[in-house]
Structures are given as structure tokens and as C-alpha cells.
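Check my protein:
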Amino acid sequence: MKGMVALGLLLFGLIARAEPSGNFFQSDSRLPADLQRVLILPLTAQAARADLESGCESLAQVLQAELAKTRRFEVVHATAETLRSRTGRSAWSAADALPAKFFSALREAYGCDAVLFCEVTAFKAYAPLSVGWRLRLVDARSQQTLWASDEVFDASHGDIQHGARRYERQEARATSERPSSDWLVLNSPRRFGQFTLATLLATLPRR
């Protein structure tokens, strides 16, 4: 499409260290040495549905917190107002046809080296919980996809339940707290969201 930038879909590779195993892609096992600042775009929904919009509201702050925990890069957050003034819209997904100067405009506004597109693809706020994520990290200079993940976590599946319980125990040990009950991680959308993001973000390229 003339005047637009399309981020072509890349085949996702299955790498065993992701638990539960899921769909993700790495262009390299390490991030570029000169990639320091990543701009996080506002969390969007795959479709205009009430459940997905609720998921965005519930999980936006969780996403920000879990990204900060990775310590892979400096995180800055795009505002809807700046996006609208610089790109013509207040929200974008990686599937959208982007304006030709999309990345250069964001680099000028935020001094970012890469942009993270964030999308909720599934959300169920009552047991068995379900959360779906589509995330893509794109180098704002070369427009190359550095990392991407597309996964749905459904707590009705035994392997997801097992992974959530293991995450809860590991978090309790790391913070010297008494272990939380399995009920919390499998019934709180926020806590379950933390588990799903910790699992996906663990597959980011290393620093």
C-alpha cells in the first residue's frame, strides 16, 4: 500500500524454554547492543468487544509493571494524545498498515530505539480464566521485528494450571512471603495476567 508501512507476519518459532510452550519469534538470541529505550504503545483489543475492552482496562497496568521487571531496556509509554498528533490515531496494532513516517515520528517524539505493539486477543474474567496476548517488538530504526509472541492462556487446561501454581510458589519465595493459595492465581484476572505476562516476557531476547 503506497505511503504505508506493513509489518509482515513472520513465522513464530517454538522454543522449549517457554513454559507453557507457545508461539514466539526471536530475530536473535540477544537484543541489539545499542537498543536502550523502548516505546510501549497503548494496549489495544483485537476487536471492539466488551470483554476485550474490559481486558485492556484490567491488564494495562499489569503489562507496564511486568515489562519494567524484565530490565531488558528503558521503558517509556506513549500517550493517546501524542500518538494522535504524530500518527493520526490514538492506538495501533502490529496488524495495521502504518503511516510511512510512523517510526520516524515516534523516534522524534520519544527518542525510542524500538516500539512494542501490545494487543489483547482473549479475556475471560471468571473461572476458568483466559487471557490472550499478541505482542511485537519492532526496531524503530530498521523496522525489523526483534521479538513477537502470540499466545492464549486458558486456565481450564491442566498445563496452564500447573504453570500458574508454579509461578505463584516462585513469586512467594522471591518476595519472602507466605505462599498464596492456588485459588488466587487461578481466580484473580490481575494475578493470572501477571503469570501470563511473566511467561511470555521470559522469551524476550537476552541483553
In short: The first strand starts at residue 4 and ends at 5.
